[in-house]
Structure formats: C-alpha cells, structure tokens
Amino acid sequence: MPLLALMYVRQKDLQILEGIGKAPWKFRTKLELAAELVEWCVTLFKSWFRKRVMVVADGAYAKRPFLKRLKATGAVVVSRLRKDAALFDVPEAAKRPGNVRSGGWRDPSCDREAIG
Q: What is the Cα–Cα distance from 79 to 67, expressed in whole angstroms?
C-alpha cells in the first residue's frame, strides 16, 4: 500500500506547462524527489520505531545530492559502488612537518577490477 508518491516531470515538459500557465510545481531532479521521499519515510519510521533507519538504494542513487540529504537525517544508506568511483588508500602517517595529506594514493588496480 503506497503511503506517499511524487511525480517526476522532465524539465522540457515542465517548460511547456509553464508556457501555458499550468505548471503547479518547480522542476526537481529524480535524486531530489527520492531524497524527499526517503526523508519523509525516515522521520516517520524514527517516530514509530525509535531506531536507526537503513535505506537500500540502487547504485544510480549513490550520488552526493542524495547521500548528503540522507546523512543529515541520520539514516544509513547501503548501495553498490558506482562504476566511476575513485578509490584511495588510507593516508600514511605524517613523517615530517607540513600539511597533513587528507587522502592516500589512488588505487588504479581497483578501477580495472570495477571495469572488468
């Protein structure tokens, strides 16, 4: 039984509706709509069960706009790794004075494994 649904309309179709004067909403991407739905569900489930909510999402939704909004709600997101994800090693401990490296070296072997 569906609790809430949001309709996605392409931006070019929405511009046509705006030209006629019948556009009841602003354009939002699929990621924005999905984040809004999940935020609603997380607040609802947290009030019902008072536990951490885990969200399982497709790899297409493992992008910053979606993940950033869900992180703010405290939900845990489980998704497959994106094919174009850049993987890095853990940075080494600082051996001399200066700026501390924030990330390790990029691991190209993981890129090959993800492609093949």
A: 10
DSSP state of 83: T
Query: What's the number of domains the chain is made of?
Result: 2
Report which of 96, 66, 95 is spatially closest to residue 78, judged by C-alpha positions. Answer: 66
Burial tier of 32 (Cβ tally within 10 Å: 0-12, 13-18, 19+): middle
Residue-range definition of the domain harbouring residue 116: 83-116
User: pLDDT tens for residues 29-82?
Assistant: 999 999 999 999 999 988 888 888 899 998 888 888 899 999 999 899 998 877
pLDDT in tens, 74-90: 899 998 877 777 777 67
Neighbours of 61 (CB within 10 A): 20
Q: Which amino acid is at 26?
A: K
Residues 69 and 45 reside in one and the same domain? yes
Residues 6 or more apart whose Cβ sits within 8 Å of residue 48: none
